[in-house]
Amino acid sequence: ESLYKQVGEIPITKTLSLIYMMKFDDTGAVRIEAGNVWKALVDNTPSLLRRIMDGLVHLLVKELAGSDHDKRMGAGRALGDLVSKLGDSVVPHLLPLLQEGLSSRDPDRRHGVCLGLTELLEACPKQLLHT
Fold first, then answer.
1. What is the pLDDT of residues 1-25, one digit of tens each?
2. Whose CA is closest to 60, among 73, 46, 75?
């Protein structure tokens, strides 16, 4: 809490979101170090993910829409993990952003959105899909 007060909500959210996404990087050393940093900083992952959810979701959707294949894949895996951890609380935030990306003229963005939707559907609790 004191760090949030000293630095501010936006820089902390952005930094934690980037660390979370790096936990799913293609490079093993990056994944391991990001995981170590995450464990050192975060006591309660679900609680923190709920706190940074808006910033994290926007970062993941932005990276899914980017042209860097490795970042897209990492963002997709991070999105799948986020959905598996938070399920019904994150899906309503994700779907509108992903749906918006489907109508993009940019093929990289559409490809990334499809990757994100695939990860969401694979990680989403089945009972949530039936509601």
1. 677 778 888 999 999 999 999 999 9
2. 75
> pLDDT tens for residues 24-58?
999 999 999 999 999 999 999 999 999 998 899 88
- What does the alpha-carbon distance between residue 91 and residue 54 come to, in Å, rounded to a whole number? 12
- Per the rule left: phi > 0, alpha: psi between -120 and 50, beta: everything else, 68 is beta
Residue 60 CB contacts under 8 Å (≥ 6 apart), including other chains: 17, 21, 75, 78, 79, 82, 116
Question: Which residue is associated with the tokens 């000293």?
Answer: 6
Does this model's pTM top 0.70? My answer is yes
Residue 23: CB partners within 8 Å, gap ≥ 6?
31, 34, 35, 38, 78, 81
Residues 6+ apart with CB under 8 A from 34: 19, 20, 22, 23, 25
In sequence order, the 6+-apart residues with CB closer than 8 A to the CB of 35 are 23
